[in-house]
Write a structure and sequence with these properties.
The structure is a homodimer.
Chain A lengths: L1 E5 L14 E5 L4 H10 L4 E4 L3 H9 L6 E7 L2 E2 L14 H4 L3 E5 L3 H7 L5 E5 L4 H8 L4 E6 L8 H17 L5 E2 L1 H13 L3 H7 L1 H8 L3 H7 L10 E3 L2 E2 L1
Parallel strand pairs in A: 1-8, 1-9, 2-7, 2-8, 3-6, 4-6
Antiparallel strand pairs in A: 4-5, 7-10, 10-11
Helix pairs in contact in A: 5-6, 6-7, 8-9, 9-10
């Protein structure tokens, strides 16, 4: 299997994934929240890049069944129903609902992956299930959402974790680009202390400062969920 | 000391380094070649981003003392005097000369750092001398040139090596962004086999395929040189 990891969104180049399977990782917090929301019974999630698109889309949907979700600079967008804390995505809040989600990093990375056959949503919460889902693919692009365009350690370690799980599942040769090789090394460094790694990362420290420390503990729970949300034609169902 | 490593050029954000000291790393091969050229007596190197700028500038300079240097896709540019192999930069070739240099990755990263007070040119060839040069700076941006916009392992490991050398030299607290922390970990993984790491990297494998295997051995020689070339106002003197 040929695995290319884009450690920042700017590395995502359309020719590399057109018509293929991609994986998107934004551990803090979009992909963790999506895994939680789908596990708790959300009917559909529509990730969009901008607040404007989110509110326009919301206006066209039934008020009783749609939720506006997301953050900017870590905080819930004014007037939105939910922010971007995985703990907010309870069955009480989301079951049967259509969620429109826009976040600083994650949904931007997803927008860059338009044209992929499918985009698998991955976080520590579902990394083994995600590996199981993509096993057998000849080629894989793994896109780390990063932090405001910059490299983020937690996404890289999660990408490395995915590569390690794929090695457990597949016998063939692994052809890794430098990003994938680096992420696998970083996973080996941090595998026994993922929560510490998340707390110490730039994004983790900022979230702690904003009072979102609980989100980090939730995001560090490896394989807490079996759901593998997949984006096809712009939505997760 | 506050150290920010940009693992790919797209991460380089002007506000982060305006008026400050930056370090640029392009192990394969631009910064290695520059260290060699200055050590072998080049009078001046003018890094430029494009072939057009290079040839226009060359036309304005004395034919007898200027050299057009650089590559695209690894190969010497047609009509140029030298390519981008550090071994080409002998005293016979470069002593007393003004070198105009344009490369795929390195000189592009340098162009993005315009506005820094000075840009220190770093490679494995001079990493300890470079650390010595920047010690005492309160804040440092280290820019990895990468490989056609993508993350490259050899630049990241060299950036991590620079951080490790600075730890030997400085007592204060180290405030690292995620990129710097990751590079330090990657250096720890590869420190005992830097030449192997360079050969196995995406860029290294491509260079071997093009017949530039010797360049990799030269680029892996740690602290082979004491020169610390510095770009100020667009040139290295």
């Amino acid at each position: 299997v040929k695995i290319r990891v884009a450690v920042v969104p700017a590395e995502i180049q359309a020719p590399a994934f057109k018509g293929k399977t991609a994986v998107v990782i934004d551990v803090l917090r979009a992909t963790t929240s999506i895994v939680h929301a789908m596990s708790e019974g959300a009917e559909k999630i529509i990730p969009v890049a901008t607040i404007e698109t989110a509110t326009r889309l919301a206006a066209s949907l039934d008020r009783r069944t749609r939720l506006l979700c997301g953050e900017r600079d870590g905080e819930r967008v004014d007037g939105f129903d939910l922010g971007n804390s995985p703990g907010e995505y309870t069955s009480e809040a989301v079951a049967g609902k259509t969620l429109i989600l826009t976040t600083t990093n994650g949904t931007d990375a997803m927008a860059r992956l338009e044209g992929a056959r499918e985009v698998v949503v991955c976080a520590f919460a579902n990394v083994s299930a995600a590996a199981q889902h993509v096993r057998g693919e000849a080629e894989l692009l793994v896109a780390c959402a990063g932090d405001a365009g910059a490299f983020s350690l937690e996404d890289a370690v999660c990408a490395g974790h995915l590569v390690a799980r794929l090695r457990d599942l597949e016998d063939g040769d692994f052809d890794l680009n430098d990003g994938a090789a680096a992420c696998e090394s970083l996973y080996a460094v941090h595998r026994d202390a993922v929560a510490d790694c998340l707390r110490a990362s730039s994004h983790g420290r900022r979230l702690v400062g904003l009072g979102f420390g609980d989100d980090i503990e939730i995001a560090a729970r490896i394989d807490s969920h079996a759901a593998v949300p997949v984006i096809r034609e712009g939505r997760i169902v």
